Amino acid sequence: MNVGLYFGTFNPIHIGHLVIANHLAEYGDLDQVWFVVTPQSPFKVKNSMLDNHQRLEMVYRATKDYNKLRPSDIEFGLPQPNYTVHTLAHLQEKFPQHTFSLIMGEDNLKGFHKWKNYELILEHHDLYVYPRISEGAIETRFEKHPKIHRVDAPIMELSSTFIRSAIKAGKNVRPMLPENVWEYLDEMNFYR
After folding, report:
1. Residue 120: per-residue pLDDT
2. Is 73 within the bounds of a domain?
3. Is 94 helix (H, G, I), strand (E, B) or coil?
4. pLDDT tens per residue, range 95-105
5. How buried is 104 (Cβ within 10 angstroms: 0-12 exposed, 13-18 middle, 19+ buried)?
6. How many domains does the chain have?
7. Domain containing 128 — which CATH number?
8. Is the pLDDT confidence value at 112 over 60?
9. Which residues are CB-contacts of 144 (< 8 A; sequence separation ≥ 6)?
């Protein structure tokens, strides 16, 4: 099985995440997309981040009605901070029958050369890159790389940061979230 790994804090998961993941699962050669909930990113400072299990619960609620989308807490038990190269090695060991590919936005590809052991990742895994509107250029070495696949997915200009700020400001963000995620956020009074 070819599994696409969609890493993120998902703080919160929103319809943009689902649209991209579902597009890759339905129109690409990925059999499933796993939302890997990241407890701590080496590039992000924790401030308004919800607890790991609260974010995992939101991902579970958002994906439960999609048979090709799954939540994953694989990084919760790995040493901190999490590096993708370590998570990939762990997953390959745990699920040797699967092929794992990375899903990332074009903005992440622009900084991919800064990732720990990025050459090793590219040696063993494919990258599926969806379009994002962002500044900067993609390094020439990644432009036509045989392991990097540009995906013609919808451009989703929606961010978890925007949603958190809007909730704090008392705005209605309900259309931007899966209904059961919105209900959970509202019930738990998150981000207010």
Report:
1. 96
2. yes
3. helix
4. 999 999 999 99
5. buried
6. 1
7. 3.40.50.620
8. yes
9. none
Cα–Cα distance between 19 and 66 in angstroms, integer? 11
SS3 113: helix
Are the beta carbons of 163 and 192 closer than 8 angstroms?
Answer: no
Domain limits for position 45: 2-156
In the chain, the amino acid numbered 99 is T
Q: What is the CA radius of gyration of the chain?
A: 16
Residue at 44 is within a domain:
yes
pLDDT in tens, 64-82: 999 999 999 999 999 888 8
* Distance, CA of 55 to CA of 98 (rounded, Å): 25
The alpha carbon of 185 is separated from its chain's Cα centroid by a whole number of angstroms, namely 19
Nearest to 107 by CA among 144, 70, 156: 156
Residue 80 maps to a domain: yes
Q: Is 69 helix (H, G, I), strand (E, B) or coil?
A: strand
pLDDT in tens, 4-45: 999 999 999 999 999 999 999 999 899 999 999 999 655 555
Question: Tell me, what DSSP letter sits at residue 124?
Answer: H
Tokens of 45: 């400072």
pTM, two decimal places? 0.93
Question: And the tokens for 34?
Answer: 């796993």
